[in-house]
């Protein structure tokens, strides 16, 4: 790794994109592949393109309950009577051939009979016994779902690198796929560092706090469907840190720690890392979360997140989450941003890209974003109350109410 990034405060800070690019460049997706039944493949990443060996739909069928006719029978004006000769149900097709002047009663999903090319919806038809009467307001070819219009035979249904979502399971089922090739799960080990930290259930002595980062990390990792190895709290001692790194790097693909990466703090963490692997201590020009360590310990990717609870979450979302997705073989990894109206003034100092915590909602027909209030990097309630990051550009000096701002929603429909 190059050396223009790290160390003292006089050194240049990395931009978000530069840091992400370096992370991307150092990642090889896991090579292991497993075959899973469709349902078990939810949230897993496809190891290979999935091709369809059939058309979906498999045959031309009706989009409506109505009557199949020949488009050329539609009158130029006035009405026409057609003879009703059969019925085509979904799952029970009529196998005959229809002639001009005839019609076949058809249900939604019913196979279009030979000789027909158009459907008239039943609401537009007058019937008497064996005949129907239709007007001239119809278009030849209407209300038909063509064979292969959703998925054509031999087409790529889903590309390698796709993280499978509910719609994808349906797509896989609709082409009859049974076993799906996905990348194996990532193994991610994590621990917190700090002499002040207790785990929940332990007694808090004076000067101690509960470790919250391991719980936010658990939640964020759980949603990425990785295999987790929670190594607990490691005290600020060189030998314990070294031992934890050794253990983690021998069992995990990725190691994530929090705490001990800010300037002047617990330098032996830094020393130990440098002695055991290749690790850069970065200052990335973002807020919150300026100090961040990234590198490798043996074969494991390493992320050293800042200890402050908001910074730990923000740096996870901004760097670790995309990195884990790349390592899982996923190709689309970033959350799309939206432009919405600032509902109030947002203060900012120029020099860093700000990820303030916001509450996005619709008001008077417009998407607006509010601040969650106090933006200190220790205020974890700001993450809990927020449903988006408000992204304020590096050189911005703040935003007035009513101006446009970019937001990154925390949750999507998918
Ligand atoms: P550090 O990065 O170790 O200097 O920690 C910065 C701040 O975050 C300090 O106030 C720590 O007490 C706090 N902190 C560090 N780790 C955690 C944790 N796991 N849970 C909650 N707070 C933490
Ligand atoms: Mg610490």
Automatic annotation (TrEMBL):
It holds the Pfam family MoCF_biosynth. Its EC number is 2.10.1.1. It is an enzyme of class 2 (transferase). GO terms for molecular function: metal ion binding; molybdopterin molybdotransferase activity. PROSITE patterns: MOCF_BIOSYNTHESIS_2 (PS01079). It catalyses: adenylyl-molybdopterin + molybdate = Mo-molybdopterin + AMP + H(+). SMART domains: MoCF_biosynth. GO terms for biological process: Mo-molybdopterin cofactor biosynthetic process. The keyword Nucleus does not apply. Residues 189-326 form the MoaB/Mog domain. Its cofactor is Mg(2+). GO terms for cellular component: cytosol. Keywords: Magnesium, Metal-binding, Molybdenum, Molybdenum cofactor biosynthesis, Transferase. InterPro entries: MoaB/Mog-like_dom_sf, MoaB/Mog_dom, MoCF_biosynth_CS, MoeA-like, MoeA_C_domain_IV, MoeA_C_domain_IV_sf, MoeA_linker/N, MoeA_linker/N_sf. Pathway: Cofactor biosynthesis; molybdopterin biosynthesis. The keyword Cell division does not apply. Belongs to the MoeA family. PANTHER family: GEPHYRIN (PTHR10192:SF5), MOLYBDOPTERIN BIOSYNTHESIS PROTEIN (PTHR10192). Catalyzes the insertion of molybdate into adenylated molybdopterin with the concomitant release of AMP. This is Molybdopterin molybdenumtransferase. It comes from Candidatus Venteria ishoeyi.
